[in-house]
Design brief:
Largest sheet: 6 strands, mixed
Order of helices and strands: HHEHEEHEHEEEHEHEEHEHEEHHEEE
Radius of gyration: 24 Å
Shape: globular
CATH architecture of the largest domain: 3-Layer(aba) Sandwich
Number of strands: 16
Strand content: 15-25%
CATH topology of the largest domain: Rossmann fold
Structural class: alpha/beta
Helix content: 25-40%
Strand order of the largest sheet: 2-3-1-4-10-11
CATH class of the largest domain: Alpha Beta
Distance between the termini: 70 Å
CATH superfamily of the largest domain: P-loop containing nucleotide triphosphate hydrolases
Number of helices: 11
């Protein structure tokens, strides 16, 4: 075991054995900050130790990018082929078939979604084991993470979630509203908006681990020590994710229900139970991908002409008329006069609206600009 791993283990043990209360919160904050800093340095070092092999630099395309994350041989390659309707990814009944990142294109409900099949993660990937460093770099740039396990190894979920967390990837969480501005003097000055549990002593001890002794700190809303440490380190990415369980056709109904219940309890929402091999519930999986990306469809209607109901504009929720203008061409926003809307967001058909009007999925939009 390396000295870095030993340090991490010692700090984790001390944290585990220290009861949390107001008297120990400052000490716990310092331990957590130290642990986060050591982990971050180890991950950064692992990432820098390789330039990334062939196939690891993938140009993003389509409306969004989804990455399939899982252990080797859980069926990621078969799933990619099933989602994209092609045979892009070689499949075989042994581990480590995929040795580079393989991109595929999935079209669903008018959206063009890039799906990446990456080499299987293994325990220790965040620290650079296996092809961890290259794989983690691809995952960090994703718009959505699909965590894939199979029915025989659902316990892998915990390992995968830990690897993603250690690599600075925060799933299904919004970035906390924290500003840390270093100053030349004056110590740590804390300003808060809303109900904030952290006190200035905890914050001072956390910042001291990063050699910050003078700073203006602004916190809005509820945040934890972990949130504050993430803000201090500053390189975290916040990505939506969900779990899918593959090969469900190989177990009986009772086993399937038990796995679903167990993962729902641990993850907070039910996994999507699929079979990439047989195609079972693949359409449901495509819907979950679309919904998790928070897409909405807007159908464009030229002035005086019919709406294009074949090719919607795909845009992320929430979206205004201005967001659509910016997606089409910057001139649309600069020369905007008014727009007309048909659909759920309109009070009546052909309602005249301004540029700040909030749109809904399925709306038909006609934009009128100055000449």
């Amino acid at each position: 075991m390396s000295s870095v791993e030993e340090q991490i283990r010692e700090l984790e043990d001390e944290l585990k054995n220290t009861p949390y209360n107001k008297a120990t919160s400052k000490h716990i904050g310092r331990l957590k900050a130290k642990l986060a800093k050591i982990r971050d340095e180890a991950v950064t070092q692992a990432m820098a130790s390789s330039g990334g092999g062939e196939g690891y630099s993938v140009k993003k395309s389509g409306d969004a990018t989804v990455v399939l994350v899982g252990f080797p041989s859980v069926g990621k390659s078969t799933l990619l082929n099933r989602l994209t309707g092609t045979n892009l990814s070689e499949t075989a009944a042994y581990a480590f078939t995929t040795l580079s990142v393989i991109p595929g294109a999935m079209e669903h409900r008018g959206a063009k979604i890039q799906v990446l099949d990456i080499p299987g993660l293994i325990a220790g990937a965040a620290m650079g084991k296996g092809r961890g460093k290259e794989v983690i770099a691809v995952v960090r740039s994703a718009d959505l993470i699909l965590i894939l396990v199979d029915v025989f190894n659902e316990q892998h979920t915990d390992v995968l979630l830990r690897e993603l967390h250690d690599a600075g990837i925060r799933i299904n969480r919004h970035k906390p509203d924290i500003t840390i501005k270093k100053t030349g003097s004056g110590g740590i000055r804390l300003n808060t908006v809303g109900n904030v549990d952290l006190d200035v002593e905890e914050i001072r001890s956390i910042l001291a681990e990063n050699k910050i002794v003078n700073a203006d700190v602004l916190i809005r809303g509820e945040v934890t020590q972990d949130d504050f440490i993430d803000a201090m380190i500053g390189n975290r990415v916040y990505v939506p994710a969900f779990i899918a369980v593959n090969k469900v056709d190989l177990v009986d109904e009772k086993t399937r229900a038990e796995i679903e219940k167990k993962l729902t309890r641990r993850f907070g929402e039910p996994p999507v139970m699929v079979s990439a091999h047989s195609g079972y519930r693949i359409e449901d999986l495509k819907d979950t991908i679309f919904d998790s990306l928070e897409f909405m469809r807007v159908y464009l209607k030229p002035v005086g002409g019919p709406a294009d109901m074949e090719e919607p504009l795909i845009i992320r929720i929430p979206a205004t008329v201005e967001d659509v203008c910016n997606r089409l061409h910057r001139d649309f926003a600069d020369k905007f006069r008014y727009a007309r809307v048909w659909g759920e967001s309109a009070k009546h058909d052909a309602q005249r609206v301004g540029i700040a009007h909030q749109l809904a999925d399925g709306d038909i939009l006609s934009i009128v600009t100055r000449r």
